[in-house]
Amino acid sequence: MAKKSSFNLFYLIGMIAVIVGSFLPIIRISLGILGKIDFTIVDAFKDLSNLDSWLALLMFVAAAVGVILCFVKVVSNASMLKTVCLLASIVLGLIFFARGNFFKDWFKITGFGFYIILAGWVIGLIGTFVKK
Questions:
Q1: Using the 8-state DSSP alphabet, how is residue 72 labeled?
Q2: How far is residue 46's CA from residue 52's CA, in Å, rounded to a whole number?
Q3: The pTM is what?
Q4: DSSP-based three-state secondary structure for 110
Q5: pLDDT value at position 72?
Q6: Distance CA 21, CA 43 (A)
Q7: CA-based angle 129:131:132, to the nearest 5?
Q8: How many helices and strands (H and E) does the chain possess?
């Protein structure tokens, strides 16, 4: 009888999508007459003086730890830790987007990275709660 694998490909793909989406333009910040700039996780690394940068950075770190937990066996039941990483990434991301009045101007300020992150969260949730 074959050994049942605990490796969850959907979860891994979802978390990798969150990481990749973090490096793409997440939101477009309007600077008035100066135009617009695209916010990525690289901008969060540059300026850690405000809460938004910390939220974006921690969202990224939670997803990265989730990916690492897919390959490293830390405890016998790592699925709970992976679920915590996914939920932490989602909560931190939602707080990040809610702080910037993101939901008010949804279509004006979203970047391509936001949609990749959102898809990663959905795929990660599917992978977490739908077992083989």
A1: -
A2: 12
A3: 0.81
A4: strand
A5: 82
A6: 14
A7: 165
A8: 6, 2
Q: pLDDT tens digits, residue range 52-61?
A: 788 888 999 9
Strand-pairing partners, residue 39, are 27
Q: What letters, b where the CB count within 10 A reaches 16 and e where it falls short, cover 6-40? A: eebebbbebbbbbbebbebbbbbeeeeeeeeeebb
Neighbours of 47 (CB within 10 A): 9
Question: Treating both helix axes as pointing N-terminal to C-terminal, what angle do 112-129 and 79-99 enclose, rounded to 10 degrees?
Answer: 150
At residue 35, the pLDDT reads 53
| Residue owning tokens 């707080």 | 95
Q: How does residue 86 score in pLDDT terms, banded at 50, 70 and 90?
A: very high
pLDDT of residue 1: 41
13 pairs with which residues across the strands?
Answer: none
CA distance 9 to 17: 12
- As a whole number, mean pLDDT of residues 76-100 equals 85
Compute CA 95 distance to the chain's CA centroid, rounded to the nearest angstrom.
12
**Which stretches within 24-78 are classed as H helix?**
41-46, 51-71
